Amino acid sequence: MTRLGMPLQQTRHESTGTKVEYKIVEKVQNFKQTEASRPDFDHSGKPIEVTKSPNPNWQWGSGINDGGESLKAKHREIDPYANDRPMVNNYRLLVSGIAPRPVGFISTMSEGGKTKNLSPFSYFQVIDHDPPMFVVGFSGRPGRPKDTAHNLKLTGECTINVVSENMIEAVNASSIDAPYGVSEWDVAGLHESPSTTVKPSRVQESLFSIEGKVIDVKEFEDHARPGMSIASLVLVKATRFWVREDAVNEAGSHIDLDKLRPIGQLGGISYGRITSTFELPRPRWVDEVERSPLLAKLEADAKKST
């Protein structure tokens, strides 16, 4: 195994052949022409509407209020490892079905600090608050791993920057496969702000940024393929939060959604924005069992069976 996570037996020929089959990023034909026919983006900044929940009269045990249509629907079984199934079909299915997803906009530095990297990631999520923890997934790809994965493994430091509506074009621009030595910061036109506990810079334009240090890297060596880097999972523990002052409450415990305006990734090249929300309090059994005959019966039956 090399330090870049590539099998030693991999050859340049294998890597080149794999690239031909790798179709995660495809050229989109006539996109500007297609986009020109669509309505303009709404920049009015009108408050995000808060509506009722989809079914305010829902009762315990009532399931989905769709007239039984979901029970009539048939489901298709798909084997993600079928011999005749292209890997890219798993990618397309997952990103279109697991949505929306937050954009993990990650800043790293190379070992020694000679180069800086800034790139968005689709497989990203916060997974805990005590301690504050994040996970970033890196897919196998032709040739060497992405610079961000390589930097995280070697330096163990990064910043994670939340993406708002007004940033998305610049963020998307930073994903370009620029030649080695070309800075994504310059390509995107974004600005660096100093961090406190790590060396990589924060994105000044980001309303909410997190400094973090790597605590674990899991490489899926059992899924290694010739010509491809090894897929990996990186756990990052937050060391500092940075929030724009006009968007956070005094306690530092809540960010104003109307100011954050987060973007969500959908399938293909689609993104989503938040235009309305609804609220649902999380129920507590001790409160609800006294009001619900069904819950009371379930509790009584459970006690009888133990």
From TrEMBL:
One of its GO terms (molecular function) is FMN binding. Belongs to the flavoredoxin family. Its cofactor is FMN. SUPFAM superfamilies: FMN-binding split barrel. This is Flavin reductase like domain-containing protein. It comes from the Eukaryota. The lineage of its organism: Eukaryota, Fungi, Dikarya, Ascomycota, Pezizomycotina. Residues 96-256 form the Flavin reductase like domain.
